[in-house]
Design brief:
Two copies of one chain form a homodimer.
Chain A (H helix, E strand, L loop, with lengths): L1 E5 L6 H10 L3 E6 L2 H8 L11 H12 L3 E5 L5 H11 L3 E4 L6 H4 L3 H25 L4 E7 L14 E6 L2 E6 L7 H20 L2 E7 L1 E3 L4 H6 L14 H10 L13 E6 H13 L7 E6 L2 E4 H16 L26 H4 L8 H13 L2 H6 L17
Parallel strand pairs in A: 1-2, 1-4, 2-3, 4-5, 5-8, 8-11, 9-10
Antiparallel strand pairs in A: 6-7, 10-12
């Protein structure tokens, strides 16, 4: 199978490429190194050192014999996507190439606009490239569980039966995202649903939980690492908590820490995406998967990192709740459904505590790099103060 | 009150300016004449001749003594909106300055992208300009009933109570728009709802039905006309049907003509917007109005135009259903609620048949202009064939 990965240089893109090569698929990819550049702009860096794309591709060639056809370019530029799709004629395109930081999108109008435009335009470009060049190819698009927000009812996988004034319909679940970034994912989902309706494109729209971890089986086998961000703009809760524990910094949940989200390990994220690739949607199907293993409150995760760290090292870790820079419910009902991937054969492979233990060990080897970033870990980007400058 | 109108040169923008001047409000406006230019690009023109903005402003000054502060610029350029808002310090900004044609958005990737980007970015610019400069000002944003699509249940005004798996929440109604243009309005609504949540901006989001007509009381009083489009890209169903009847062309509903939509006259549209201006939302309120009078199927409208035309002129009019260039249900349930404006005091002032009679008379005076456009009235822009070129 020919698998094209938009955002192949990223946290998920790179280990997905390694997995698809291991599966014997032909892998190509596009990236413009947006994340590398923007992470440096906030004086941060991947805590796990990563090679250049050129070196990554050479290393893959050496270790596996596989070639990766790489295209350097911005997927918000239509000709970049269209030309690559024309050349590769992929069976599936996995779209991971969007600006992925909620805080970045909330810095101010400029970043809000850039996030909105780049993310939406990249998906439009992909829709038209697939429609006109390889109309039977599968679009596998990364969304986020954050599209749903935290409604006071169960969250279905994309669609649900609605009763209103005595009549019924099967409708998309109403979305209530919590940042401009999260809204771009909602807008993308809506645009994909429409593209499916007009042109019957086969689409998988993945509502993914928060991904954590430093390792996958393919990373372990090849030794080719993926990036790992811990700063307030580009890092995510659990990854950041582990880094804080390792560096002897307080673990800092935002606000009360009752915010509850779905989480899954990097290994399981890659397995879910790979399963979606190997079992594509039916002709003309638009399917939505909620992709996560368990839901935890941010406070539960902080406590778990503290426990595992203290157990593994014998040292003490401190939790310090800090003012929440976001506008979000800090105590709420949360019960999203996630059956579809399990029905297709997905099995959760990693226990959260074991994964935290591995992360802590991996990060301990880079403690000086984490300490050098201690200024950019604490939250500075506040939703309320996002402005025109 | 200081009223700023984005898109003051348009079909609705101009008569709204006349109304607000008549009400004694101070009126300012922004426009970049996008619609004038794009209409000419499809070899079309407003059937009712309209003056340049300069002449419009001079005529208003002569007839009413009022000054309109006009800013020529693109509202997708942040400094255009921010500078005008800083200068005017408006109490309300009415946002009518978006690309408003569904067929235009479906021509191909370039037009889809332009519609998506310009519409979304203009609303983001307005959100930030209001937030940072006049945070208590009212944003009155024009959306469309087309955001809801045609679900098989009643359509509430924006929000409804949802029961699912034994629990309840009050949620935004799921949207299912039918073109890239209509989706931009959904994305705008979502972005406005979020802006209200984070910054408590006071917002009215108007889900407006299809507007028809050539006249308002203010147009009659001042003699200052508004544009009237009839081509397949920029015209809307009822306006186009009237022009076809006048020119002796067949009236052409798309497909079976069972597509049902909410409609209202230009006079009533202006009255609803004026009512929303004079009764702004509460501090921190995001309110959604469904703004239309009656819903009709396209076939009912075609028959009504035929009847009125034959009654008024004694000549025959022919209805000819043509293949539907759109992807839409041609027979469906349709029952949207529209109580909120009525509860605020709005009363329907025009009867559809009377309004059709006036339109036919107005258009008869420009029969040669309509005949010159006969090539651009028939549908060419097909949803299915929208492509990368």
């Amino acid at each position: 199978m020919k698998v094209m990965i938009l955002g192949i240089d990223g946290y998920i893109g790179w280990p997905l490429a390694l997995r698809e090569i291991e599966k014997g698929n032909e892998v190509s990819g596009i990236d413009n190194f947006f994340t590398r550049r923007r992470v440096r702009e906030v004086n941060s860096d991947s805590v796990i050192p990563i090679s250049t794309m050129q070196k990554r591709i050479s290393a893959v060639r050496e270790k596996t014999g596989a070639r990766i056809n790489f295209y350097r370019g911005d997927v918000a530029n239509p000709s970049v996507v269209i030309d690559a799709v024309k050349k590769e004629k992929p069976d599936v395109v996995v779209h991971l190439a969007e600006q992925r930081s909620a805080p970045y999108s909330m810095i101010g109008l400029k970043q809000a606009t850039q996030t909105m435009v780049k993310n939406i335009v990249s998906t439009l470009n992909l829709i038209y490239a697939i429609k006109d060049v390889v109309p039977h190819a599968h679009i596998l698009k990364l969304g986020t569980m954050g599209e749903y927000g935290t409604p006071n009812i169960d969250i279905p996988e994309g669609f649900f039966e609605v009763q209103y004034n005595g009549r019924k319909d099967y409708l998309p679940f109403p979305k209530q995202a919590g940042s401009w970034y999260h809204w771009t994912k909602v807008h993308d989902s809506n645009n994909l649903m429409f593209a499916n309706r007009v042109w019957r494109l086969g689409i998988t729209d993945v509502m993914q939980g928060v991904v954590y971890g430093t390792r996958t089986t393919d990373i372990n086998r090849t030794g080719l690492r993926t990036r790992f961000d811990i700063d307030e703009v580009w890092g995510t809760a659990l990854n950041r908590f582990c880094a804080q524990a390792v560096a002897g910094l307080p673990i800092t949940p935002y606000g009360k820490g009752g915010q509850t989200r779905g989480f899954l390990s990097l290994e399981d994220s890659i397995s879910c995406l790979d399963l979606s690739i190997s079992k594509p949607p039916a002709e003309g199907e638009y399917r939505v998967f909620n992709q996560f293993d368990e839901h935890y409150s941010v406070m539960q995760l902080a406590q778990m990192v503290k426990e595992v760290f203290e157990h593994d090292t014998g040292k003490e870790a401190v939790i310090r709740n800090v003012p929440n820079p976001r506008v979000e419910a800090e105590e709420h009902y949360y019960n999203p459904e996630h059956k579809k991937l399990a029905e297709m054969g997905y099995r959760h492979s990693r226990e959260l505590k074991d994964e935290i233990s591995i992360m802590l060990e991996d990060l301990a080897a880079h403690r000086p790099r984490i300490e050098a970033l201690s200024d950019v870990i604490s939250p500075h980007t506040a939703w309320k103060s996002s402005g025109i400058n």
